[in-house]
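Journal club prep — side note

Before the paper discussion, L.F. wants everyone to see what a predicted structure for a comparable chain looks like in C-alpha cell form. Sequence:
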Amino acid sequence: MVQLSEDVEEIQDMGYDVYGISPADPAGHAQLREQNDLPFDILTDSDGEMGADTGFIDMDEEMIYRGYVAVNADTGKIAEEIDYLVGDNSEEVIETLENMQ
C-alpha cells in the first residue's frame, strides 16, 4: 500500500481531494480502511444514487463498477472513468488529472 499512499499524496499535491465511495455501510468502510491502510476516507452511497448518476451502478443489471470521478474546481473540467484497474494504474489516472489542469 506504500505506492497507493504515494500516489494519493501526489494527487493531493495537485490540488485534488481523494475519497472512496461505496454503497457499503460506514462500519464496513472503517474495517476496509484499517485492513488496507487506505490513506483516504470512504463515503457511503447507501441508496446508490450517486453511483447510478455517474454510471458506476447499473440498477437494472444490479452491477457495481469500479472507477473514478475527478473534478478540477479551478477549470471546471470533469473526468468520469469506469476503470477496473483504478488504484493499480495510478500513472494513467495522474496523467488524466494533469491534463485537467
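L.F.'s comment for the group: The helical segments are 2-13, 26-36, 49-54, 90-99. Keep this in mind when we get to the figures.
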